[in-house]
Design goal:
The chain is α+β, with helices and mostly antiparallel strands. The chain folds into 3 domains: 148 residues, no CATH class; 124 residues, SH3 type barrels, CATH 2.30.30; 121 residues, 2-Layer Sandwich (Alpha-Beta Plaits), CATH 3.30.70.100. It contains 16 helices and 13 strands. Strands 9-8-7-6-10 form a 5-stranded antiparallel β-sheet. It has a 3-stranded antiparallel β-sheet with strand order 1-2-3. A hairpin with a 3-residue loop joins strand 7 and strand 8. Helix 4 packs across helix 9.
Length: 548
Amino acid sequence: MPRTLFLLLIGLVLLIPATLQAQQQEAPPITLETPYNAAYVHLYYLQPDSYRPALAAQALPETGDSLQRVRLAIKLKQIYDGKGLYMRFNRIPREADYLDSTVMQAVFTPFPNELPQVYLERDGDQWRYSEETVTKIDELHEEVYPFGADLLMRLAPIVGEREILGLEAWQLVGLLVILLLAIGVHFVLSRVLRPIVRKLSHSRLYPALVPPELVWTIARLVSVLVVLWLIKLFLPPLQLPIEASNFAIVVIRIISLLLVVAILLRALDVVLLYAEKAAERTESKMDEQLLPVIKRGVQFLIFAGAMIQALRLFQVDITTLIAGISIGGLAIALAAQDTIKNLFGSLTIFLDKPFQIGDWINFGGVDGTVEEVGFRSTRVRTFANSLVYVPNGKLADMVVDNFGLRKYRRYSTTLSITYDTPPELIEQFVKGLKGIVAKHPDTWKDFHEVRLNGFGAHSLDILFYIFFDVPTWSEEIRARHEIMLEILRLAKALGVRFAFPTQTMHVEEFPGTTPTTPHYPQTQEEIDARMKAYAAHSRMANGKGKSH
């Protein structure tokens, strides 16, 4: 901070005006026939080498006391100097019949952004400052010189009026005083603001969330901004040359703009810290993914606003620029319509939330897990461990099957057993399958279907239709593994054989041998005995299932 102020003030000292505001060397005729002549007469006769305030007052309306008109003409010049407003005569119209196209009146405003109340108007065949301007001069003068225009000029008798580097000695002493005061104010103010910023950014839920370094940075930035405002307040009484004053005020405004941007960015960091904590408390993972997008969007708005303000500081016609951007923006929009479509696709995904980070989705032949949702595309990790980038514009128009939103995960299969299985054994086998579902801890107990369902070409088909109450695909695979192993154990215990498509040649008997047939349990008592033996060795005999 001290270094910045020091360089700023050194620049003010070294920037010595080489010429006056008026470029002509000869006195202008006091005709006041055009806006150019009126503004020129006013400023030319208030320059040190051509100081004749009575002539300068001719640019004001011929009402009231002549001494009052002289005083107001001098004050108006001081307002220009204090605000650092450099009259650019090459932009002032020289037509006697000039009309402002915006209001279609014979008026001209030299500084429409900085001083819209000050304007010239045609009075008969002459141009002068308006009556409204005259009534506003005292009020504007007090705003520019709240401590009086001669506050620092009182140093002149003490340090003398000798010129050094184009400035009078009292002006250089005034700059030095302002520099020392600025350094002292910054040293005290930054330490006063530190606890205030800490209190404003403090939260009872997360008392240590905001780092002390961030608090200290914000306090210093705000302190520098206040100090620059104070410098701008005390510069007008120095009565610097108009070019030096204009340079100083422009530099102060640019630095102030940069400081405001820096403060807003640091404040955004504080807000995002709390937003991240709030996102962690929600079940949706999309909120955490949305925060970086919001951060980039807000940063873009901050920088865009700063750019527009910077253009205004350099007196760039924003209206013309916006019109040009609109025409060029149409061409750019036509060329970048896919990008715009992807942007709106991103907004659709974030608002509708068809899936979250970590969800298993299927769309357009792509099957995988969502890893990231950006402004332009969504990144999906396939089960082959490859990455697929899908433009959000296309993804928003696709039919997305979100397996991650399933409350229960379905498992459907057909158990094919041989045709020679006795009906009683089939019934007991189906009963055992239902028992497996009831005992497993991760199955949905309110609905399942386990029934003999069809006569196949080579088997009797049992429908095994169940649901798992598990959160992830890995848990589903584990539960399937356990269920399938238990089915095999049950079939082995009961002697049930699974069928598969084969061709078998049956021979009643070979010479000298006795025909053999599979040994199935023939009575209910024998089936019950086998079920008791299975239950005694089943790993799920003591399992606890979920019920809803």
